[in-house]
UniProtKB/TrEMBL annotation:
Molecular function terms, GO-annotated: methyltransferase activity
Record's keyword annotation contains Glycoprotein: no
Key words of the record: Methyltransferase, S-adenosyl-L-methionine, Transferase
A Pfam cross-reference name: Methyltransf_23
BP terms from Gene Ontology: methylation
Entry superkingdom: Bacteria
PANTHER family assigned: METHYLTRANSFERASE, UBIQUINONE BIOSYNTHESIS O-METHYLTRANSFERASE, MITOCHONDRIAL
Keyword field contains Kinase: no
Protein name (database record): Methyltransferase domain-containing protein
Length: 269
């Protein structure tokens, strides 16, 4: 279903025609948005939109009568190979542009919000949060502007040995953020149980949860490659941490076949 949606998306909006990586990402985003239960005509707020991978799928699914407000705390020049600003400009010039408002350098907690949203989406952005208290504050504010929270993140409870490398890489990078200030995309490894507790502490109730296949994505290998680069920088860390990191590093590759972790989805109301 999601593969067909991607091809229809490309034909309709003339985006990512020659970008196989982006097409693969879109396939997963369609699966996530379907799991969220997003419908035509909805007004959606997306927090942590990044380059807009999920944003464009949300905009397609809500249709001409729906709308997506997409915010991110990062500046326009953040990101590679395309910056966020460049990626958003490309989307704005497409047929989807009228359905989306992008807001960069925007902290959700400081946004002036004078309307309700049919759903608020946080998709693969929670690991960027430096402080768990800030994520909890986000959940609490979401409750005041919407009846539906749609959340997705990598599931550290991997089911296949080929996903072990992504698990180990994420663990290394989370430790790296503890010992080295950086703006990498892994600051905290929030797992399913911790997210569910935060959601409940914010006054929301989990409506349903499910697992979404993501083994085919490139993200796992990207994280593995980056983890290999930073492993040597633990030389100044305590010896016990160095030993732990080396054990993770030794498990990064599984006979040359590495796959991404799956995603877990939680919808709360």
């Amino acid at each position: 279903m999601s593969q067909n949606s991607v091809q229809q998306f490309i034909r309709q909006y003339e985006l990512f025609e020659n970008d196989q990586i982006q097409q693969t990402q879109l396939q997963h985003r369609y699966a996530l948005v379907e799991a969220f239960g997003i419908k035509k005509g909805m007004k959606v707020l997306e927090i942590g939109c990044g380059q807009g991978d999920t944003t464009v799928v949300l905009a397609d699914v809500v249709g001409e009568n729906g709308h997506v407000t997409a915010v991110d705390i990062a500046p326009p020049d953040y990101g590679a190979p395309f910056t966020l600003g460049e990626a958003h400009e490309r989307v704005n010039q497409s047929k989807l542009g009228d359905r989306i408002d992008f807001h960069l350098e925007t902290d959700f907690l400081e946004m002036k919000l004078d309307k309700q949203y049919d759903a608020v989406v946080l998709s693969h952005c929670s690991w960027y949060f430096h402080d768990p208290a800030q994520l909890l504050a986000y959940f609490k504010r979401i409750r005041s502007i919407s009846n539906i929270l749609c959340f997705a993140e990598w599931d550290m409870q991997f089911e296949k040995i080929t996903q072990r490398g992504h698990f180990c890489a994420a663990s290394i990078l989370a430790l790296y953020s503890q010992f080295t200030a950086n703006d990498g995309n892994i600051q905290n490894l929030f797992g399913k149980s911790e997210i569910k507790k935060m959601i409940e502490d914010a006054g929301l109730k989990v409506d349903h949860e499910l697992r979404v296949d993501a083994h085919f994505l490139q993200d796992g290998q990207w994280e593995i490659d980056y983890a290999k680069e930073v492993t040597k920088e633990f030389a100044a860390a305590p010896v016990r941490i160095q030993t732990l990191v080396q054990n993770y590093a030794d498990m990064l590759d599984v006979e040359g076949k590495n796959e991404s972790l799956d995603s877990f989805v939680i919808v709360a109301k």
